[in-house]
Design goal:
223 residues, globular, transmembrane
């Protein structure tokens, strides 16, 4: 009702229903980004592309800068440019041999470029170094990969994830989605509900980044 009322006011002020609708959508988007986080950021991809360009210049001018190479590879993974990310990651392995995050990133890049035979052991190595690395999301990526080939193996990996008690709403949302894709409706609902429970226990500063995933999980548990 409130949206209809605001739309009517905007229509009256602007004299054009289409312009009023655009303004209303912008208002909803801004409020969501400020308080909820359901909608994707429009600015983040632009900032990421700008940062990638800057990092390309940085590594060209300083070939020994391992941290810039790694940051570049991670941003490329976010953009799903797996082949290029893999090339950068393979160049810096000697500097990150004890980093669980590195082995997960490299394993992910390999998994998405058709080299699962190498990528899978690297992701398992990441979990050996730190079972809670990235809130346990390597388990979920492996389960997603296994789900296309061996449902029982995917379920085994999901149960290993549950054992670590991750504090990430996003991770439990992903877990629920995987459970549902495997036809495990009760487990999926429990995962979505766990995401909501985790959200309620988070400190205030952490709730902002997890709120969108908690809301998605709540909606999934209902429908």
């Amino acid at each position: 009702m409130s949206k209809i009322f605001i739309f009517s006011i905007l229509w009256w002020l602007l004299g054009n229903p289409f312009l009023a609708l655009i303004v209303l959508l912008v208002i909803i988007y801004v409020l969501d980004r400020r308080f909820v986080g359901m909608f994707p950021s429009v600015v983040k991809p632009l900032r990421r592309m700008s940062r990638i360009r800057a990092l390309r210049r940085q590594v060209a001018n300083s070939p020994s800068d391992m941290s810039s190479r790694y940051e570049l590879a991670r941003l490329l993974l976010e953009r799903r440019h797996y082949s290029e990310a893999r090339r950068w990651l393979e160049q810096i392995g000697h500097a990150y041999e004890e980093s669980a995050e590195y082995w997960d990133d490299l394993g992910t890049a390999l998994l998405h470029t058709g080299d699962a035979a190498t990528g899978e052991p690297y992701m398992l190595k990441a979990l050996e170094l730190n079972p809670r690395v990235k809130y346990g999301e390597p388990y979920l990526r492996l389960a997603s990969y296994y789900a296309r080939q061996d449902g029982q193996k995917a379920i085994d990996v999901l149960e290993r994830f549950r054992d670590i008690q991750s504090s990430s709403c996003r991770a439990y949302y992903m877990l629920g989605q995987l459970d549902r894709s495997l036809g495990r409706e009760q487990e999926a609902k429990a995962s979505f509900q766990e995401a909501v429970t985790i959200y309620r226990s988070l400190p205030k500063y952490k709730k902002r980044s997890e709120r969108g995933w908690a809301i998605r999980s709540w909606l999934r548990s209902l429908f």
